[in-house]
Specification:
8-stranded antiparallel sheet, 7 helices, about 25% strand
Length: about 220
């Protein structure tokens, strides 16, 4: 989600930005904030600052390490009994990966209002654990395009590592793929029909991210 989250969502922000954390330093975040303020909105700039505050990004050479996300329950959510049970709480239709009969586990955020709730569908796949986040977007599609351009613009900048890439899901939905500097882990996010999707996992490659996104999207 592309805004500063409520205090009960720090793990969600870290999980959704797990790859960006690998890129971030104080200098690169300040540069990103400047891009966001000029090209999107102030609330997105706060999200970039939150990467430092929440993810624990350290100054270069400090020896500090960012915290590792809890992949099994990245939002510290409640386990729902079924997709139908989770659907009752959501303002949009939940979508599951069609090649799996059902998610391994479904996580919900019951403390949040209906319009702010976040669902995570978890799958065990040949690519390892896959977490699919679904929620109401906090930025418009046009605003999200600018966010993508801002992150891609940070590629190769001093003090950054990893890469961001602009891709199209099913050839029609602009998406952001971020990849760790060692190339071993990526995530992908996009907005489709009033829903924001994020697909991530501890060992998910860029190719696998795009594959699952194309499979999930309509």
């Amino acid at each position: 989600m592309l805004r500063f989250p409520p205090s009960n969502r720090p793990s969600r922000l870290f999980a959704s930005c797990a790859i960006l954390v690998d890129r971030c330093t104080q200098a690169s975040v300040r540069a990103c904030c400047a891009r966001y303020v000029g090209r999107v909105c102030a609330c997105v700039a706060v999200a970039a600052v939150a990467l430092v505050a929440v993810s624990g990004c350290a100054q270069p050479g400090s020896g500090e390490q960012p915290p590792v996300p809890n992949w099994n329950n990245p939002i510290h959510g409640r386990v729902e009994a079924s997709l139908a049970a989770a659907q009752r709480h959501m303002p949009f239709h939940l979508r599951s990966l069609p090649t799996f009969p059902r998610p391994r586990r479904i996580l919900d955020t019951p403390a949040l209002s209906r319009d702010s709730r976040l669902i995570v569908l978890q799958y065990r796949t040949s690519s390892g654990l896959v977490n699919v986040y679904e929620e109401t977007p906090q930025v418009s599609v046009s605003g999200f395009r600018k966010v993508i351009a801002s992150w891609v613009g940070l590629n190769g900048q001093p003090g950054t590592s990893g890469t961001s890439a602009a891709v199209m899901v099913r050839g029609k939905y602009p998406a952001l793929v971020t990849t760790a500097s060692d190339g071993r882990r990526s995530d992908i996010r996009w907005i489709e029909a009033g829903v924001e999707y994020l697909i991530t996992g501890p060992s998910l490659t860029k190719r696998a991210c795009i594959h699952f996104a194309n499979e999930l999207a309509a």
